[in-house]
Amino acid sequence: MAERMNDTELKFIRMEELRRMLENGEPIQIVDVRPAAEREEWSIPGSMHVDAYQELHAGREPSFEGLRLTTDAPVVAVCAAGITSQPAARLLHRRGFDSYSLVGGMKAWSMAWNLAELAAPAAHLIQVRRTGKGCIGYLVASGSDAIVVDAALDPEHYLELAAGRGWVIRHVLDTHIHADHLSRSRSLAKHAGAILWLPEQNRVQFPYQVLRDGYDLTFGSTSLRASATPGHTLESMCYTIGDRWLLTGDTLFTAAVGRPDLGADPDAARLRAELLHGSVRRLLDLDPELMVLPAHSSTPIAFDGVVVGARLGDVRRDVKLPAAAADFSAHVLAHIPPVPANHLAIIGFNEAGELPDGDTSDLEAGANRCAVS
Fold first, then answer.
1. Of the four listed, 135, 244, 266, 360, which is most buried by Cβ atoms within 10 Å?
2. Per-residue DSSP letters for 351-364?
3. How confident is the model over 248-260, as pLDDT tens digits?
4. Average of per-residue pLDDT across 48-58
């Protein structure tokens, strides 16, 4: 577990190892030392918090007394980029704890992931969640044939998950052109030898198979039906798998709707909001027993194996949709969250079908801001 770097009081742990420990339920204590405002947006599930940045930055010793730490389990100090957590880990070591600093901090944690699963008679679904970033994708299999929707992790993870279950990835899809994370769908399709499908649009600059409204994509003994749901983006689509699951992308969340403004001027955002009203209304009229499975979460996703989703009937109750599109548009546009810092750069990469060289953590860092409630 430990990595020492010429400092007898300082040990390091990498994101992959911390992710594995949380996934396996191993005893671990995580202390987040960032300012409170930074933690409000995103954090590691189960972590404790002490606003110690100023003291640590100034070389002073903060108090950890209120955290109720125990010497029975390792302690991992976490900050934004893995710098301020180092003196915190040293101080914890001096106080008798087996302490570590998380390499790369929350920027590195952006790529951490966990799983949850659902089973149906004809299909099996794995929800693949980037826990800190809030990105959610899906690996769905029927028989030995599998599809992946909204791939946000490196291709190797989906390939290993599929191979470990005897599945072969035949198709890869996105629900729309994403603005808050780099799509790995094109890369995954190439590595898997799968067909890449995207909603009909004129934005991307690379070959793909076109998904149109009402198209049925068969895999194994089940099928996926594509439904055009413009609003979050003009090309946004939702996918119904069998008669159980409704993959809603960033159109509809369990208690919110997608923001219509990213990459749009005020007039275009208003038009998209009105289109979104019609899309959400059509979705809410579907079978109330369908499970709504979105492409993002606005809060950190715990390592609990519980699917992020809800019955459509419950979503219908929690998403109070005004009857008039103009009223809906006015409400949504008045409650738009802050714009993601790098969304235009991310859109550019996704439209080009490219991934930047090297580390992408700076580009993708931060919480998800796709939902409007």
1. 135
2. HHT---SS--HHHH
3. 999 999 999 999 9
4. 88
Q: Supply 149's token pair.
A: 């929707």
Angstrom distance (rounded) from CA 174 to CA 251? 13
Q: What kind and span of H or E run contains 14?
A: none
Question: What count of residues does the chain have?
Answer: 373
The one-letter code for the residue type at 373 is: S
Task: Taking residues 175-185, report their average pLDDT.
Answer: 95
Query: What is the separation of C-alpha 319 from the centre of its chain, rounded to a whole number of angstroms?
Result: 21
Element (H, E) at 212: none
Residue of higher predicted confidence among 326 and 298: 326
pTM: predicted TM-score of the whole model, two decimal places: 0.94
- pLDDT surpasses 70 at 4: no
Residue 145 contacts residue 167 (beta carbons within 8 Å)? yes
To the nearest whole number, what is the mean pLDDT of the chain?
93
CA-based nearest residue to 110, from 18, 232, 172: 18
Closest to 308 measured CA to CA, from 115, 122, 149: 115
Q: How far apart are CA 371 and CA 336, in angstroms?
A: 8
Query: What CA–CA distance (Å, rounded) separates 253 from 247?
Result: 10
Confidence (pLDDT) at 7: 64
Do residues 150 and 308 lie in contact, with contact meaning Cβ atoms separated by under 8 Å? Answer: no
pLDDT-derived band at 338 (thresholds 50, 70, 90) equals: confident
In DSSP terms, which residues pair with 311 in a beta bridge? 291
b/e for 13-49, b at 16 or more Cβ within 10 A? bbbebbbebbeeeeebbbbbbbbeebbeebbbbeebb
Q: Which amino acid is at 287?
A: D
Residue given tokens 């953590």 in the structure block: 361
